[in-house]
Design a protein that fits this description.
The complex is a heterodimer. Chain A is mainly alpha-helical. In chain A, 89% of the residues lie in helices and 0% in strands. Chain A has one domain: Up-down Bundle (F1FO ATP Synthase). Chain B is mainly alpha-helical. Chain B has one domain. In chain B, strands 1-2 form a two-stranded antiparallel ribbon. In chain B, helix 1 crosses helix 3, helix 3 runs antiparallel to helix 7 and helix 6 runs antiparallel to helix 7. Classes of the chains: A mainly alpha, B mainly alpha.
């Protein structure tokens, strides 16, 4: 296989990790909303934790994106 | 064909070339934007704290708001022992926030979209917190790697995992900020390219999407500064209040 084509395919596969990040972010927000609907008075206190979880989950997907960019531009 | 979305991250020299030995320390656009954000922070806080009126004006309100925000964040995550480190975490948060926000201005340069900048900050945090931990607890700080209540058979494995996770902290801290900023700005550039290539007929759809994306990116810019600061607080909490 040509090197250029292999690079493109590899980058495409690496970006698939963002699917996991999508699932994770959806899960975090749905759980937060479900919890907040049950107990609205406790919701405000957990908001920083929501943001923290969101950022941590998004970062794992973005690691895959970085791998893809390294494959495309750094090699 | 749209313009290369990566050209916005190019670092180029402004003014004369300065070299010390093999190192090129010329003034670049990255340094310019670091100077601009530092000056903006200085200006807001010097104007905001000049006249301490009971009924604050807008600048004073901004200064007080950010102070109490960071103060509350440190109190919640790291406890009263972390009070001496307030000024460092506050400076870190404001610097990252302003670099991210100045990056959102069109045609400007995002300092935090370069991994060496974020890695420099994260490595500074990591080394500093490790030194603080060893000063406060001596060699007892190594107990951080031995969680209590773990069966003795699992212990060797757990210690290795804890050490690896401790050492990967600066990596994950820096890559998180860098990747978020770079991915966001690349995405905006790509959508901006769609507007041009689709022209006046079909360009409205990506244009409206681009506007929505700008709002999201401003949220992400704030969020990543917040996460950077709060993770620093959590790491500091590990070093100060060692109870496993």
């Amino acid at each position: 296989m040509e090197l250029e084509a292999a690079k493109m395919i590899g980058a495409g596969i690496a970006v698939l990790s963002l699917a996991g990040a999508g699932i994770a972010i959806g899960n975090i927000f749905s759980s937060y909303l479900a919890g907040a609907m049950r107990n609205p008075s406790a919701a405000q206190k957990q908001f920083p934790n929501l943001l923290l979880g969101f950022a941590l989950a998004e970062a794992t997907g973005l690691f895959g994106l970085v791998v893809a960019l390294i494959i495309l531009f750094a090699f | 064909m749209a313009a290369n979305p990566m050209t916005q991250f190019e670092v180029y020299r402004i003014g004369p070339e300065i070299k010390i030995g093999a190192f090129d320390i010329s003034f670049t656009n990255a340094s310019l934007f670091m100077v601009i954000s530092s000056l903006a922070i200085l200006m807001i806080f010097s104007i905001g704290s000049k006249k301490n009126s009971l009924l604050p004006n807008k600048v004073q309100l901004l200064a007080e708001l950010s102070y109490s925000f960071v103060s509350k964040m440190i109190g919640d995550t790291a406890g009263p022992k972390a009070r001496p480190y307030f000024s460092f975490i506050f400076a870190l948060f404001m610097f990252v926030l302003f670099c991210n926000m100045f990056g959102m201005v069109p045609y400007s340069f995002t300092v935090t979209s370069h991994i060496i900048v974020t890695f420099g900050l994260a490595a500074f945090v990591f080394i500093g917190i490790t030194i603080i931990g060893f000063i406060k607890h001596g060699f007892g700080y190594l107990k951080l790697f031995v969680p209590s209540g773990v069966p003795a058979i699992l212990l060797p494995l757990i210690i290795i995992i804890e050490i690896v996770s401790y050492l990967s902290r600066p990596m994950s801290l820096s890559v998180r900020l860098f990747a978020n900023m770079m991915a966001g700005h690349t995405m905006m550039k790509v959508f901006g390219g769609f507007v041009i290539s689709l022209g006046i007929v079909g360009g409205w759809l990506p244009l409206s999407f681009s506007v929505a994306l700008t709002g999201l990116e401003i949220l992400v810019a704030f969020l990543q500064a917040y996460v950077f600061a709060i993770l620093t607080c959590i790491y500091l909490n590990d070093a100060l209040n060692l109870h496993h």
